[in-house]
Amino acid sequence: MELQFYALFMTILSGVGLGLLFDLLRAVRRFVQPGPVLAALGDLCFWGAATAMLGAGLFLGNWGEYRFYVLVGLLTGLGLHLWLASPIVLWLFDGLLRLLAWLLELLWTLFLRLVWHPAVAILRFAYRVAVQVTAWLGRRLRGPYRWMRLQYLLTKRRWRRALRRWLQGRKPPRDS
C-alpha cells in the first residue's frame, strides 16, 4: 500500500511540475509577446520539457508503468496547481522576468558607458592623431619627394634620349 501512495504522490508532484512549467510559458509569452514563429518554437520547447519531466516522474513514481491512477494523479496535481498556486506563481514569474530584464538592461548600459563609449573615444582620438601625423609627414616629405621626382624624370629623359640616339646608329655619350 505504501508503494501505491508513493506512486500517486509522485504523479501528483509531476502534475504540479507540469503546471509550473505551463505558468512559466505563460509568463514568458506575456512578457515577450512573441510572433507566430516564436510562439510555435516556445510551444515546441514546452512540450519537449513536459515530456521529459513527465517521463522522469513516471519512471521515478512507478517505474514506467502507466495505470489509470497515473492519469488521475497528473490531472489532480495539475488541477491543484492551477486552482491554488497559479496566480501567485504567475505573479512571481512576472516579477522575476521584469527583474531579469532590468538587470540585463543595467548590464548593457554599464557595458556601453564603461567599455564601448571609452573605446570608441580612444579609437577616434587615435584616428585623429594618425591623420594629423600623416598630414605633418606629408608636408615635411613633399619637398624631398618633389626633388626626387624631378631627378627621376630628368634621368628618365636622359636615358630615353640616349636610347634613341643609340637606336639611330649613334653611340651614346659616355658618362664621365
**Radius of gyration using CA atoms only:** 40 Å
Say what oligomer this is: single chain
Q: Please tally the β strands and state the result.
A: 0
Annotation field: number of helices: 3
Please, what is the average pLDDT?
83
Shape: elongated
Helix fraction, binned, reads over 70%
Biggest beta-sheet profile: none
**Would you identify the regions where 5 or more consecutive residues have pLDDT less than 50?**
none
SSE pattern, N- to C-terminal:
HHH
Structural class: mainly alpha
Q: Estimate the strand proportion.
A: under 5%
Distance between the termini: 122 Å
Write the layout of secondary structure elements.
Blueprint lengths: L1 H31 L3 H27 L5 H100 L9
Helix pairs in contact: 1-2, 1-3
Describe this structure in words.
The protein is elongated. The chain has helices spanning 2-32, 36-62, 68-167. With 176 residues, it is mainly α.
In short:
The protein has 176 residues and is mainly α.
Features:
single chain; 176 residues; mainly alpha
